[in-house]
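ok so i was messing around last nite and threw this chain in just to see what happens. nothing serious, just curious
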Amino acid sequence: MKRDMDLIREILLETEKMPAMEMWVAVPLLGYDLAEVVVHVELAYDAGLVDARVLRGIPPDACVLGITNSGYDFLEASKHKTLWEEAKHQLVAQGLPIAVNTMKVVLQGLVQHRLAKLGVS
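result:
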């Protein structure tokens, strides 16, 4: 199985839709089965994007208790589909890894560039 940053992004988007103090329970997303989603919840947890509980049993299960402050920063920068796709394109074009930290840096750079165009520094 490969890590899919789009799936991690989707987990954050789904979690954000939940009412305050309610957890998001893993379900199949973006064509991935439950086991793959559970692994990606764990990856989001490992990256410090979410607070989560993962059960690698049969069947596997995971719930996201909440998004961390770092996770919200990542989510806000990645919400705009054009910025998200542009960040992925830039990384691939440069032969760089599409990882949480590199995506954060590129997304922040794109936001800063757009702010500069608006005359905001």
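not much to say yet. Residues 100-117 form the longest helix (18 residues).
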